[in-house]
């Protein structure tokens, strides 16, 4: 291999490393944004649960109210209100799960890029060795 060929390969590998590093930085920025949003989504999830429990306890506390209107009210609560709370809670939980999944996916992508960088640096090191041996 010629000196020019070795130097071209070194430049190519260094360029690939720069590209990997830029991609890692982009991923890290996205991860940070998601990590900032995650507590707010967790708080919403907790609030939904707390409100549902408050409403449920309020309905259960109505022991003096009896009759057809009470049964109708209870039926609406059981058939519409509580399932709606559950659907909303599950939707927020799904968003939180998606945030966690995306953070994990991007962190794994960073680890993969770091592995590529390690392989490229190893290759550069071998090329520099070959270049040094070329001039010995």
Offer a concise description of the structure.
With about 140 residues, this protein is mainly alpha-helical. About 90% of the residues lie in helices and about 0% in strands.
Salient structural properties:
136 residues; mainly alpha
Please describe what this structure looks like.
- It is a single chain.
- This protein has 136 residues and is mostly helical.
- 92% of the residues lie in helices and 0% in strands.
- It has two helices and no strands.
- The chain has helices spanning 3-60, 68-134.
- The longest helix is centred in the C-terminal third of the chain and has 67 residues, at 68-134.
- The protein is rod-shaped, with a radius of gyration of 29 Å.
- The model has no long low-confidence stretch (mean pLDDT 92).
What topology does this entry show?
Blueprint: H1 3-60, H2 68-134
Helix pairs in contact: 1-2
Task: State the assembly state of the protein chains.
Answer: single chain
- Radius of gyration, in angstroms, nearest whole number: 29 Å
- Counted by DSSP, the helix tally is 2
Average of pLDDT: 92
Compressed to H and E, one letter per element, the order equals: HH
Taking the alpha carbons of the first and last residues, their distance comes to: 14 Å
Structural class: mainly alpha
Tally of DSSP β-strands = 0
Helix content: over 70%
Low-confidence spans: none
Q: How much strand content do the residues show?
A: under 5%
What is the 3D form? Answer: rod-shaped
Biggest sheet architecture: none
